[in-house]
# Entry
Amino acid sequence: MNSLRWRLVLALVAILVAAAAVLGGFTYRNVLIETEALFDYQLRQMALSLRDQGEIAPSQAQALADGQLDFVVQIWSVDGRTIYATRDHPELPSRALIGLAEVKVGNQVWRTFSTATRDRVIQVAQPVVIRKRLAAGAALRSVLPLLFVAPVLALFGAWVVSRSLLPLNRVVAGVRERDGHGLSPLPTEGLPVEVEPLVSAMNGLLVRLGESFDTQRAFVADAAHELRSPLTALTLQLRLLQRAPDEASRAAAIAALGEGIERSTRLVGQLLTLARSEPGAAAAPPVRLDLAEVVREALVDTVPFALARGSELELLADDPVPMTGDRTALGVLARNLVDNALRYAPPGAHVVARVASEGGVPVLQVDDNGPGIPPAERSRVFDRFYRRQNGGGDEGGSGLGLAIVASVARRHGAVVDLAESPLGGLRATVRFGDSA
# Structure
């Protein structure tokens, strides 16, 4: 059964039944013992009251001989002669055992109490079967209230459980009211301390979902806006190609169309990379890796672009730098940093990538001798689609490179810092958490 309410109710009923059974058992046993002791006390008192009495009066003898009386009184002389018996009985005890005793005569067991005086012996006897029946009746009557109280307690317990689970019902109702357009936090006032951590965790999840949805909506809006221009340009270039009057014009239009397709392809690729690096996107599980090896592999993809621009690309990564992370995402981070350094620096630039471990913290640095970025703009370059206009670099970028770097860094708990480089341009430093 998956219902928490019914689990609690059944557990409470089981506890009540077990408690009632144990309590009833102890009560029944104690009442039996107390009743037996009371009956023995009656036997003793009756025998002792006759011990100090002389002759038994006829009226008293008639009362003791009543057939409805469970007790049988016998009196013997010191020489064993029967002086008195309350009534004739085929299986009366024929001898007396001083004090309390059980005597079996034929098929019947008697509980007796006998006392002796100077000239006679008095015995009061009672059938054991009658004593047990009376004791059992008294014990059952003492247990019967439990049979009525237990169901009432079970119903009360079920009501208490239902009342206690009302905060959960309110939380469920609140969650059902939320959707992608309304992810406001759930109220936490009046919640039990056991439920409050759950609601707080759900509120944190709602906040993260809201941020993720906002990011997705912003991404879709930005992507639609950014794709509109290159697609329009491609349409215009295609029309120019169709209207080209001669072979030279047609070749120029084809070359422009090819460049437009290449830029659009790069923009789409960057958009897909950014989408994969966003918080909440499906990502590969982190693995143990060597950051120096990851950067070395990533820089292989940038070598053709560096050669095409006549730029010099240098990697300083002599020692392994172990850490834990997503190999593919870290490769994208390193490649984008180096690609930006090459793209926004003049042709023939010098770009140096360094991977090291500083105090157990993995660090990636990329330096160039380009125009750099003014301090006032360094925080803005991590925004999506933000492009700086400069005279020395290529302006065909998508404005997503550093946004992707920042997103991958956040996923790895890293900090990206931009500063002036000793080479004269920009230094980008990515300092990861202590993953060694």
Notes: The two ends are 47 Å apart (CA to CA). Residues 391-395 have pLDDT under 50 and may be disordered. The CA atoms of residues 103 and 258 lie 122 Å apart.
